[in-house]
Amino acid sequence: MSQFATGRDNNTDELAETIALRLENRLNAKPFLVVARFERKYLDANRSSANAYESEEAKPYYDNYHSALREAHDWIRREWGRGLLLDIHGQGAQAEAIYRGTGDGKTIASLTQRFGREAITGPKSIFHQLERMGYQVLPSTQESHKEQRYVGGYIVQTYGSHRGSGIDAIQLEIGTKLRARANLARTATDLAEAIAVFAQEYLPIVKSS
């Protein structure tokens, strides 16, 4: 029996691409964007190589994906000292919700050490901004509940700042309805705005005028 789910993260690639475009326009700075162009029924890049695929034919795709992630990670660390990796996925458990996954804070160790929990739950955090726009964020920034269900997979666990780098990593699990064709542009625009507010407060970038 195959170990892989055959469901697709519908429109997640387009969502990530649109977020990147909105961020570039908003901040006048182009973010790195690494998109998986393969389906998860063949290869799950959010797992270790030993568990990511069944056919060796998938290995070059896995290696190229993670090579691109590592290249972006290392460039940001070298040029800026610290940064933020957002790993965007789709989920169907809560169609209108966005789950936060940081291993209960582990993968954002540098961020919280420097700025405290306010950087993840405070007024200028991505998640507070999303809640202010009317989105359901799990766990809520108003509660002290631990992350549940989607706590952060292989990518954030591998590239997060708990590894000793300055690159903090957050997994975002976006609900089905928020990724639907009719809602995708709005979701991307709102996410980009929330990320921009966070970036201008907490990341070492030139503030836009």
Give a written overview of the molecule.
With 209 residues, the chain is of the alpha/beta class. 43% of the residues lie in helices and 12% in strands. It is built from nine helices and four strands. The chain has helices spanning 12-27, 49-52, 59-80, 109-115, 118-121, 126-132, 154-159, 176-179, 184-202, and strands at 83-91, 97-101, 136-138, 167-175. The protein has a four-stranded mixed beta sheet. The protein starts with 11 loop residues before the first helix and ends in a 7-residue tail after the last helix. Mean pLDDT is 92; it is low at 1-8.
* Strands in their spatial order, largest beta sheet: 1-4-2-3
Question: pLDDT under 50 segments (min length 5)?
Answer: 1-8
H-E string: HHHEEHHHEHEHH
Helical content stands at 40-55%
Distance between the termini: 55 Å
From the spread of the alpha carbons, the general shape counts as globular
Q: Count of DSSP E strands?
A: 4
Number of helices: 9
How confident is the prediction overall: mean pLDDT? 92
Residues in β-strands, percent: 5-15%
Structural class, please? Answer: alpha/beta
Task: Give the radius of gyration.
Answer: 16 Å
**Major β-sheet annotation:** 4 strands, mixed
